[in-house]
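ok here's PTS sorbitol transporter subunit IIC:
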Amino acid sequence: MNYIEWFGTNFIGLFEAGGKQFVSFMTGIVPLLIVLLTFTYSIIAFIGEERVNRAIQFSAKNMILRYTLMPILSVLMLTNPMAYTFGRFVKEHQKPAFYDSVVSFLHPVTGLFPYANAGELFVYLGIANGVVEAGYSMSSLAVRYFLAGVVVILMRGVITETITKFLMRKEKV
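and the structure:
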């Protein structure tokens, strides 16, 4: 009989803890996400959607911008999974590399812009919690993640484009 009481108490306790966590999100992270989204869309509206599209088309012509600026803007403006649609601005042989850059940037962006890929937020917050417990700054971690992410997406984009070109030549595509 004691096991049944324990199970009943702890089973309900699991949902009570989940409810408390949910409320903390509703008073903490959700308003932050809404404000960040509003800010991003306000900037786009202020600059103008056509100007933003022209900037993206311009950056698609340069390899460094194609695998740094384009993925960053696509993730910040369109979020996951819509960020991949900026691939329409690149040539066919560049699409795999662009996709690789975007998908590789979805985690590093989470610290500074959590709305961009909310699914990764729990992973980032778990890591950040450990960093804070170790006595370091979460803000410093977020900036370092972001900057390391920019370097990684550039490297992945250039390498993937090179491999794609090689394979397309080999297959005579």
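+1. Residues 15 and 33 are 25 Å apart (CA to CA).
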